[in-house]
Amino acid sequence: MAIKIHAKKLNFYYGAHQALFDNSLEIEANRITAVIGPSGCGKSTHLRIYNRIFELYRDQRVEGELLIDGKNVLAPKVDVLELRRKIGMIFQKPTPFPMSVFDNVAYPLKLHFKLSKTKIADRVEQALRGASLWDEVKDKLKASGLALSGGQQQRLCIARAIAAEPEILLMDEPTSAIDPVATLKIEELMLELKKKFTVMIVTHNMQQAARISDYTAFFFQGYIIEFGETEQIFTNPQKTKTEEYITGRFG
Amino acid sequence: MAIKIHAKKLNFYYGAHQALFDNSLEIEANRITAVIGPSGCGKSTHLRIYNRIFELYRDQRVEGELLIDGKNVLAPKVDVLELRRKIGMIFQKPTPFPMSVFDNVAYPLKLHFKLSKTKIADRVEQALRGASLWDEVKDKLKASGLALSGGQQQRLCIARAIAAEPEILLMDEPTSAIDPVATLKIEELMLELKKKFTVMIVTHNMQQAARISDYTAFFFQGYIIEFGETEQIFTNPQKTKTEEYITGRFG
Amino acid sequence: MKAHFIQAHTILKEMIAEIAAKAEQAVQSAVDAVDKNNVAAATRVIANDAKIDEAEIKIEEECLKILALHQPVASDLRQVITILKVNNEIERVGDLAVNIAERVADMALYQERKIEKFDFRDMVNKAKAMLKQALDAMTYHDVAIAMEVIRSDDEVDIIHRNNYGKTRDMILRYPDEAQYYMDCLTVSRCLERIADSATNICEDVIYQENGHIVRHQHSVKSDASQ
Amino acid sequence: MKAHFIQAHTILKEMIAEIAAKAEQAVQSAVDAVDKNNVAAATRVIANDAKIDEAEIKIEEECLKILALHQPVASDLRQVITILKVNNEIERVGDLAVNIAERVADMALYQERKIEKFDFRDMVNKAKAMLKQALDAMTYHDVAIAMEVIRSDDEVDIIHRNNYGKTRDMILRYPDEAQYYMDCLTVSRCLERIADSATNICEDVIYQENGHIVRHQHSVKSDASQ
Amino acid sequence: MPSVKTVPRVALNRRRHNVGLEFRKHKNSNGMNVFKLDNIFKWVCLGCAALTGLLLVGFFIQLIISSSEAWREFGLGFLISTEWDPVNDQYGALPSIVGTLLTTAISLLLALPLAFAAAFYLADAHPAIGEPLGHAIDLLAAIPSVIYGMWGLFVLAPLMQKYVQPFMVDTLQLHQLPFVKDEFNGFGILTAGLILAIMILPYICAILRDVFQMTPPMLRESAHGVGCTKWETAKDIVFKYGIRGILGGVFIGLGRALGETMAVLFVIGNIIDMPDSIFAGATTISATLANNFAEADGIQRSALFALGLTLLTMSFVIQVMAQHYLHATSAKRGEK
Amino acid sequence: MRRRGLSFRKLSDRLVRLFSTIAVLLAVGAMLWIIIVVVIYGAKALQWSFFVNPSKPYGIPDGGIANALLGSVIITLGATLLATPPALAAGIALSEFKDYKKLMFLLRFSANVMMGMPSVLVGLFVYIIMVVPSGNFSGFAASVALAIIMFPVIMRTTEDMLAMVPYTLRESALALGMTRMRTTLHIVCMSARKGLLTGILLALSRVSGETAPLLFTAMFADGWPNNYFTGPTANMPVLITEYTTNSPFAAMHEAGWGAALVVTALVLIINVITRIIFREKGHGH
After folding, report:
1. Nearest to E126 among B58, B89, B164 (CB)
2. To 5 degrees, how large is the angle CA D44–CA D47–CA D52?
3. Which of A169 and E127 is assigned the larger pLDDT?
């Protein structure tokens, strides 16, 4: 399998406080890689390096290399906007833009591509279908994105993320603010998404990681303690810390 | 085993909207009874009848009988303040009162009982020990209750609830706002609590219900679909709806 | 959860169907080999058992994986556990087929002698039918068939008990052929144990469907008569 | 989760220790009964098996309950699964003890005759030691002991194979005593299978500790020689 | 934002995308233009934000400069001098300051308990009653102060003269207390305090209501859950929970009362003299300013600016206190 | 354990609740009283001529309020135009640029202090910086004074409203490859647009009844407001003050009440509109 992302000794700092230590990972293309660990272990922080969203905050900085398709995207010359187009991100809470369902998905398209109106409509439909949302919203494309239910909003965000034709999808606890039924739908959607994208998901819900991911990385206090096939992590973890965490023996 | 609470055909209304339908239950003393079901199924509503806390809101009303130790507590003549002393309630989020740790626990004592200072101190210690919190807070009894961590706050609320010598503890998703490690502690605490109290817990976390409860009631759309021993509910539910819910086949 | 679990569960069911087919085939081939004194066929059965063993381990790993990753409850859990146990029984059936096949070479030595042969046909048919029905019961979640299989186990037991007496008589009558009759008894015992396995599978199926463990309720029986 | 799981798990371990002790006792009593031609003792062994069966079902239910309610993963899951399987093996050992005991009445008939008796002592000691070690390995999570038991299984196999030949020879020599020698063979086979069960338990223990299924790696063996 | 539009448009740079889509825009490959634009936007916003700080400093500077003459003339004694004599160009601030403090104190004394009680009622009332009543009280705050002044002048002052003050003096014999005299004409400190009380009531009430509402429902429910009555819940739990917010609200009301001009101007009597009774006519700083500014010049004008500076300083201190408490509550809420 | 008496606790509860009901009735009663008085006295003045005629000096009949009304509208609109753009930008700065925490804290703090500033001082300030240098009162100076009052109100409301927009919305916009500016203007401000409008209206209603600053800046003139930048400009609040305090004539008192009614009505209308807009926003979320 092709390695899509190769993190090499990432160190991350919040001001003077070091949050990540020598994180190295190799992420396979077209697989779901789950990132688990106790709160504050750095799992979200790790993900936020990938699309350099951490740069919003002045006192945060990273050291190390992050190769995507072999290219170090942490290099200063890299075009951040283009990088972010290539890496879709889904957040903990659904964040539909304050516009219609259609415009929500069309917005990134218009931002990045020059397309005719019909082509935009096509791609919006395609993205909404890709997010298993088309059937539910096709009759209310003009309604506000905020009028949808929580689960639908989250799928709208997924549609928006995949509209710009990214290659990687980062999901930061995408179902933590969503009810179980909607969670189910999104988890099923992920099975579809991994056919086209490389998916990374941060989750505090171990069962979720177990259910949906192919690979699992266990973070603890900023270190990657163990990384391997999900099956192996959950049936036969190699590190005591991992074992303690997944069996709930912590604390 | 003694039946502590006997709900008889409870019907509950939010204004014109009926939320609960003919809820009948028999709750055993000194057992943990879990109430599970999808969001909006009425599980919290059901619990809020027990200490008549719903009466705070004008448009909510109940029909039916709720016998506690054989006495219908929904009768108008029942003294609500005394009823609430007898039924401790723990909420979704920790709600320490804006006072010191000590006063948090002493407050309900002073409210309901005439006690000397030393006796109050004794009982506060006893309650804090009962909530497995004493060792952690004995050196900061004067600190604000809000200064504790989330899990400690929740145990403080438990201490406060048990200080007034209740007989029943109602817990409305007591760990949903708390991190996994603290959740563990509270779950372990429950094992202790059930020795002295009759515990009812509403939870959206099926695994939690499975782990800690002796009996489980499954609510759906305001009806009690199934009620039985937890083991039976989770290995061999009798109703299709229950099966669908606990195996995640909903939606 | 569901989609992932269903996917994994479907794969599991296919795997168990496959191993069941293999085991059935092994029994059939072994019995045929006894019938036709076909040592080559018997050797093949013995060689093929490795595949069944391999499949058994794969299925078991898959079951454990499902338990660890999907943490099923209620009927889902019962199905996985049932498969875990049925898988074990099927592997045992495969082993028993090997045991039968191992006797073939020995028995073939007596092929030409004019001794009284054992007639296994009735027993073979019964045992094979039970095995087949048991697997069907599992596949189609059919408790009725499962109950029937459990009931018919007694018949096979009786046949085996008769075979035991017959063997003793035969040995007394033809001491020189003791080896052959002991082989026959082994075959009979294997068939009886295949029927037992079928019964066990059916008990598991009933657990899968009803959630009740019905084992041991109809008197202690496994290997009860030799 | 932990406290509740540990509580349930402890109970489970106590239960499995109890059933193991019962099964060991049954084997011991059965073998003693054979040795002393004590029909009464043998009858007691047969009667007591119902308790083992009952305990087996209780343990299995407890395992399923833990799986459904606590949804263990990693080593916790492996321990529960191991107990589930070991439990099954132990029940089988109990059944085998019954099989041995069932022969006692028959063999007692030959008590007074001056025939060459079988000496099971070596085999009994080996099989019993294996069973005990296997249970110890499980209790103390000791992979080394488990490996040793697996290795020593071959010795018992060899003894049994010798017994098989010896039986045939004896029958040829004393056809009138065929019944007795067939009983002896049955006892030998039961002991051999008890050793097999011990081996299986050890394989499960190794899985429990290492997470690897080691079964079938040391050649197909169960009942491989009669 | 006009300032942003003047920035040159981003250079278009078309290029092929691997899926075959055409890129619409995007900066040149190093992305500089985009960030320049972002930077300009940021500095424009920051500049506007800085205005508020500059204004505040400007207030002090301007008033200090304009009042420097008076300070030179009277020194700090200006603050404790009771004289205000335009004929002899002798000016002192004490009468105005005392009037200000007295009216403010009276208004707070009257408004606080009422506001707390009203907020308690509104927080608990059925929405169908509580909401309209709440809005009604809020609208009380929206009525321009000049209207209060008129109402005070034409309605309240006559009522005070005819009924209230006679009642207080004749029936309650309050004039035996110090600082109450049996001379009254409807105008004066008490009337002004009363008007101010009505004016600041909605402000304090609104903040208290926020405090009541900001109290997590679960906290209130848990108070009831341990068996508190509604009043016990309010005084022991909600009050303590929102104490800082309540203090902030009190200071906000205090600031209002201190600086209010028009409503006071109409009813206080505008006598620049030390008051000897709560019925006496007096003045406040802002009333003095509004009343005398038009005709004043020279040292009198400077003295008025000095009064203004005094008021600014008082108001500043009170606002600092208010912000201190409100900020602390919002920080606490932020944690939750 | 000895139990505390329940009846005493319940009685005090009832008494307090009775008192609180009275308090609300008092407050609402005061409002109704004021409004009713204004309506009763003011209604007499409301005639067509009252709205179309300019004000006349003392004693001249048929004086209206048209010039003052127009003047007030011009002054207030001027103030709104002056204050809104920089105040919005300032609000954006406060909520969006978290890099300069101490500076932002100071600015937010001074805005809060400015919001509580007595308006009479704002009048004084503008008098010093505008009226004195130019030598004359002007409507524009009044607009500046009102703008100074509006500025912190809009700024702080803007900040609060933008702060209510979840931070992840910004991040998700940026994560799609948007620039900071586009994110702020297209996504964040769009999300909060009703809140921003609420802030502007809030500020508007706050200043539309202000009197004290106008005394020092616009003053008053019995004529149409045709020299907004250079001369005293007629306006409602000062008209009311003049007619009620400095005039012995009943007709002028009556006109004052009429003007008061108009101002009160306008202010209350703006207020109610603000509330409705804000409530709709509340439901949207």
Report:
1. B58
2. 115
3. A169
- pLDDT surpasses 90 at B179: no
- Band (pLDDT 50/70/90 cuts) for residue D224 is very low
Distance CA E68, CA C172 (A): 139
Given a cut of 90, is residue B7 above it in pLDDT? yes
CB contact under 8 A, D74 and A234: yes
The answer to whether residue E158 neighbours chain B at the CB level (below 8 Å) is no
Between CA E204 and CA E114 the distance in angstroms is 10
Interface probe, candidates B79, B86, B107, B112, chain F, greatest F C-beta count within 10 A:
B112
User: Of D171, D181, D223, which is closest to residue C179 (Cα–Cα)?
Assistant: D171
Residue written as token pair 């929500």: A104
Q: Give me the residue spans of the domains in chain F.
A: 2-45, 48-284
Measured CA to CA, the distance from residue C170 to residue D91 in angstroms comes to 34
| Assigned CATH for F48-284 | 1.10.3720.10
pLDDT at residue B34 in the model:
96
Alpha carbons B199 and D46: distance in angstroms, whole number: 46
Domain layout of chain A by residue ranges: 1-29+42-78, 96-167, 206-251
A184 contact B CB<8A: yes
Q: Is F98 on the interface with A (CB under 8 A)?
A: yes
State whether ipTM is beyond 0.95: no
Chain E hits for A71, CB-CB cut-off 8 Å, are none
Instruction: Write out chain B residues lying below 8 Å of D4, CB-based.
Output: 187-188, 191, 211-212
DSSP-derived letter for residue E16 is B
Q: Is the pLDDT of residue E11 over 50?
A: no
Query: Quick check: C3 and A191 CB within 8 A?
Result: yes
- Write the pLDDT tens digit of every residue in B127-152: 999 998 999 999 999 999 888 988 89
CB-based contact, A82 to chain E, within 8 Å? yes
Domains held by chain D: number: 1
Spatial distance between the Cα atoms of E246 and E329, rounded to a whole number of angstroms: 9
Q: What angle do CA B200, B203, B208 make, to 5 degrees?
A: 95
pLDDT given at position F282: 46
**Cα–Cα distances in angstroms (integers) from residue B49 to residues B29, B55, E233, in the given order:** 18, 9, 20
Of all residues in chain D, the percent with pLDDT exceeding 90 is 57
Query: Where in the sequence is the domain holding D186, given as residue range(s)?
Result: 2-225
Q: Which of C69, C73, C80 to mutate to test the interface with A (most CBs of A within 10 A)?
A: C69
Tell me the nearest-neighbour CA distance from E99 into chain F, angstroms.
16
Residue B180 pLDDT more than 80?
Answer: no
Mean of all residue pLDDT scores within chain A = 90
CB within 8 Å: A115 and E26: no
Q: How far is B96 from chain D, CA to nearest CA, in Å? A: 25
Q: D220 vs C98: CB contact, 8 Å cut-off?
A: yes
**Of the candidates B82, B113, B165, which has its C-beta nearest F2's C-beta?**
B113
Read off the pLDDT of residues C153-180 as tens digits, 9 standing for 90 and up. Answer: 999 999 999 998 888 888 888 888 888 8
Taking CA atoms, what residue in E is nearest to A80? E31
**Bridge-based pairing state of the strands B60-68 and B215-220:** unpaired
DSSP structural state of residue F59: T
pLDDT in tens, B68-107: 999 999 998 888 888 999 999 999 889 999 899 999 999 9
* Sign of the Cα pseudo-torsion (B177, B178, B184, B188, in order): negative
D197: left (phi over 0), alpha (psi -120 to 50) or beta: alpha
Contacts of F among chains (3+ CB pairs under 8 A): A, B, E
Neighbours of chain A (3+ CB pairs under 8 A): B, C, D, E, F
- CATH number of the domain bearing residue D141: 1.20.58.220
